[in-house]
Amino acid sequence: MRLGMFMMPLHPPGPPMYEFIDQDTRKSLLLEKLGYDELWIGEHFTATSEPYPSPLMFMANLISQTKNIKFATGVINLPNRHPAVVAGEIAQFDHLSKGRLIFGAGTGSLGSDFELFQIGDGETRQRMLIESLETILKIWSSDPPYDIQGEFWTTQIKKSISKELGLGEMPKPFQKPHPEICIPSASPNSTSLRATGKRGWSFVTSSLLQPQFIKQQWEIYSAGCAEGGRMADGRNWRLSRNIFVAATDEEARRRIMDAKSAYQHYLGYMRTVFKNIGRLAALKSHPDMRDDEITVNGIIEERVIFGSPQTVAQKLIDLREQCGPFGTVLVTGADWSGPNEEWESESLSRLANEVMPIVNASEKSATRVAAE
Hints:
Blueprint: E1 2-7, H1 17-34, E2 38-41, H2 55-60, E3 70-73, E4 76-77, H3 83-96, E5 101-106, H4 111-117, H5 122-141, E6 146-149, E7 154-157, E8 180-185, H6 191-199, E9 202-205, H7 211-227, E10 237-245, H8 249-257, H9 262-276, H10 296-303, E11 304-307, H11 309-323, E12 328-332, H12 340-371
Parallel strand pairs: 1-2, 1-12, 2-3, 3-5, 4-5, 5-8, 8-9, 9-10, 10-11, 10-12
Antiparallel strand pairs: 6-7
Helix pairs in contact: 1-12, 3-5, 6-7, 9-10, 11-12
């Protein structure tokens, strides 16, 4: 099993952006030092609490400071931009990083971004996502002239072409035929997952999706893969989870339940966001649960994997047996204010050096037994 981080990134609003850039840069370099495989950075134009309009710009600053970690857009919200812009910027970053790029793409989830860009309802955004990706793939796989007509965008270069001068041709990615395409999903019955599997793309399961629905996502994705004439491969499935590790179960609980814990802010923030958009049901442990029964500590108990290295490893092993063969676990990044830099740094280190060896040893043992 591979290991990465999904960094929204989420911070308490107020401090200037450069402070968050410095903090998230330090965290990213720690991930590289610890041997994490992937770093995912989110995109938000209208939230000082999730402050990066361009994950590519943030990650470009890290290319020369790292050697191994792969960068992932988490995600580029395709309805916000013309697909030709995205195609060109992704291709450029892929060359800058010499192929250390995963192209995470989605519809977005921030209401203020939808208002800014005058994006329509959810069904419209899904159509925009598919059209944008198909346009981007056509740009990457063809030479001029371009004449791609869609419902939402037109991509056309027919007159201003000079092969001798190199004019009129869109850049192609470093990776061939293109970087891995990965789509996020937070819905138990996501229709986009079937389309994702059919097209051979990868997917990320949301960190807040209830465990009982995770297996359902894998089944939908697998059905889509079958429609596309391919076998579903767990290496194309990333599961995002809130994970916190300390020396003992008791210490992990004390830290994560502390009023200064970044998880208190993060899950309180998400509870408020979900309430404002009428989606509190997504945080309920059962359908009959009242809204006023949803507490931050209750969400932590149900949605955060925390404890000693041995406890967390067993929880991950059990989760994989229950839900399916996810190939990568993405731990959600936390804010580093107060004691949280020390706490999360220790947690990330223990996760990489103590938890994952147990998990992977168990996986190898299970594979060996199955083969006998």
